[in-house]
From TrEMBL:
Active site positions: 274, 366, 368
Family that this chain belongs to: Belongs to the CarA family.
Protein name from the UniProt record: Carbamoyl phosphate synthase small chain
Protein role: Small subunit of the glutamine-dependent carbamoyl phosphate synthetase (CPSase). CPSase catalyzes the formation of carbamoyl phosphate from the ammonia moiety of glutamine, carbonate, and phosphate donated by ATP, constituting the first step of 2 biosynthetic pathways, one leading to arginine and/or urea and the other to pyrimidine nucleotides. The small subunit (glutamine amidotransferase) binds and cleaves glutamine to supply the large subunit with the substrate ammonia.
This protein's pathway: Pyrimidine metabolism; UMP biosynthesis via de novo pathway; (S)-dihydroorotate from bicarbonate: step 1/3; Amino-acid biosynthesis; L-arginine biosynthesis; carbamoyl phosphate from bicarbonate: step 1/1
Reaction(s) catalysed by this chain's protein: hydrogencarbonate + L-glutamine + 2 ATP + H2O = carbamoyl phosphate + L-glutamate + 2 ADP + phosphate + 2 H(+); L-glutamine + H2O = L-glutamate + NH4(+)
Residue ranges of every copy of the Carbamoyl-phosphate synthase small subunit N-terminal domain listed in the record: 20-150
Class in the EC hierarchy, top level: ligase
Keywords of this entry: Amino-acid biosynthesis, Arginine biosynthesis, ATP-binding, Glutamine amidotransferase, Ligase, Nucleotide-binding, Pyrimidine biosynthesis
Domain of life: Bacteria
Assembly with partners or alone: Composed of two chains; the small (or glutamine) chain promotes the hydrolysis of glutamine to ammonia, which is used by the large (or ammonia) chain to synthesize carbamoyl phosphate. Tetramer of heterodimers (alpha,beta)4.
Gene it is expressed from: carA_1
Pfam families to which the protein is assigned, alphabetical: CPSase_sm_chain, GATase
Amino acid sequence: MTETPNTVDEQAAVATIDLDRAVLVLEDGTRYEGRAYGARGRTLGEAVFATGMTGYQETLTDPSYAGQIVLMTAPHIGNTGMNDDDMESARIWVAGFVVRDPSRVVSNFRSQRSLDDDLAAAGIVGISGIDTRAVTRRIRSSGAMRSGVFSGEDAFLSPGEQLDLVREGEQMAGRNLSGAVSTAEPYTLPATAERVGSVAVLDLGVKTSTLGYLADRGFDVHVLPQTVTAEDVLALEPDALFFSNGPGDPSASDRHVELLRSALRAGVPYFGICFGNQLLGRALGFDTYKLPFGHRGINQPVLDRATGRVEITAHNHGFAVAAPTDAISESSVGFGRVEVSHVGLNDDVVEGLNCLDIPAFSVQYHPESAAGPHDANYLFDRFRDMVIAAKQNDRTQEAGE
């Protein structure tokens, strides 16, 4: 028999415990009860899981996670706290955060704040103390789905009310989120190595590390809002074009596809990562499709088909390009021959495209390694070399004329 609290202190203690209650609700009606973590309230988004053992700060501040409630499969999160140096953007972008065992103590000399404090300050509603392995298995078997985290007063909504709110949320398929994450104004970062030229970066959710690596390869980096037109880009006379990572469905970005086609027809060398890979695929005439639960983490094996080397890479994508992996194909819109350059070894998903008749290539994963391994960092060198070769070819043609 449960005793009723008699004193004011006892009643306050019960109220505090109740306010710490939280629940994760999935679209299929599955519920996981735990403890509030970060801000209190409600949040809705697509439930996905990330398999990285480290790098939670880079994950949280990656704009590609906008609109998603991210579950960390590693059991202990928050051990190293948060700092200003590892931010991949100016803010936390995840819609919600799910962990099993948040660290009670921050133990790192670089830490400036606790993860819990940053989540609360940013208004990110999270949940802890649930069986994250069980949730991961549910997502793997049923696919990424709409979900919600409810804490504080919202934890006491009826299960039916909570489920209705979840099912009223937006689907990720067909959703365009570029406008929510892109820079509002253009800005430029100067080259930090011997200058190669300039690169126009379409910011679809770009990460800070990516811009740094481009500058380190000798590029003046012109970061542009996602609202720019092809005319705006070509007016800059860039030596190259780069499309960044970003959230949302590539099939909802027709305008960016047309911008890319215009640049490719103008002979501008191109490199794209993640969302930029999907948009190159669409620009070449391929379709894209939604993966059942996507790839998210820093331990994904990818085969570089040119070298036979297996790279361990960082991923964050829920969509992929539908291109033939068994043979070189022809672009249906006139850009020549295309090969699938990289393949994911877990499920044979297209992880890279290489154009054989125009200077353009892309990869689905994140070579900026923030967070993650550095196996694919050489791709920034490959981009630099491609741009140098293209400029030399232009000079040779001009001399011939």
